[in-house]
Fold:
Amino acid sequence: MELLGIAVIILIIAVITATISALRKDGLGHNPPVRSEEFWMARDLPSVNYTLRIF
Structure:
């Protein structure tokens, strides 16, 4: 029974170590910033509510 408990503890430590290693190698903190080249505008979006356009 003690051997099973030790095996579970070692498995938990291995999973935690693998998770931390994967998160460190992920590189999410090194992504380049997103740049928008085109000026934003609401091209074909209506300026009034749909219910008001019916009447």
Remarks:
- The helical segments are 2-25, 50-54.
- The two ends are 78 Å apart (CA to CA).
- The chain has a mean pLDDT of 78.
